[in-house]
Write a structure and sequence with these properties.
Its EC number is 3.-.-.-, 3.9.1.-. The chain is an alpha+beta fold and 116 residues long. The chain is 24% helix and 22% strand. The protein is built from three helices and five strands; from the N terminus they run αβββαβαβ. The chain has helices at residues 6-11, 59-76, 90-93, and strands spanning 19-22, 26-30, 38-44, 83-86, 102-106. Strand 1 (19-22) and strand 2 (26-30) form a beta hairpin. The N and C termini lie far apart (35 Å). The structure holds guanosine-5'-monophosphate (5GP).
Length: 116
């Protein structure tokens, strides 16, 4: 059984967060340390620590993360200019919170994909 993170508490509304969207599969809220004018995290309600834990049975939930990202990009007003979706995995990927999350970043030019 994977260990819960702070994100499980946000899903259950046990700690405050600026939640923008929630349904039976996913939750979306603003990142506490925004790296762009729009910086939203979209997470599955089910605890999966990393992309390495995704199974075929999770495909609906993973797909929902993209449709919610698309809707939030529209409501944030960043869809037309463009934005970036990032999912970090494990230490080399820069993952800090071990509950899968998709970063939605937009509102300014984001520069190169990777700073080497
Ligand atoms: P990672 O580096 O794991 O891909 O990204 C984790 C993200 O979660 C970071 O951008 C960080 O700012 C955000 N984060 C960490 N703790 C909290 C929290 O308690 N609330 C919110 N809203 N975001 C958090």
């Amino acid at each position: 059984m994977a260990e819960e993170t702070i994100f499980s508490k946000i899903i259950r509304k046990e700690i405050p967060a600026d939640v923008l969207y929630q349904d039976e599969l996913v939750t979306a809220f603003r990142d506490i340390n925004p790296r762009a004018p729009s910086h939203i995290l979209i997470i599955p309600n089910k605890l999966l620590p990393t992309v390495n834990d995704v199974e075929v049975e999770d495909e609906l939930m993973m797909g929902r993360m993209f449709t919610v990202a698309r809707k939030l990009a529209e409501s944030e007003g960043v869809a037309e200019d463009g934005y970036r979706l990032i999912v970090n995995c494990n230490p080399f990927g820069g993952q800090e919170v071990y509950h899968i999350h998709m970063h939605l970043l937009g509102g300014r030019p984001l520069g190169p994909m990777i700073v080497s």
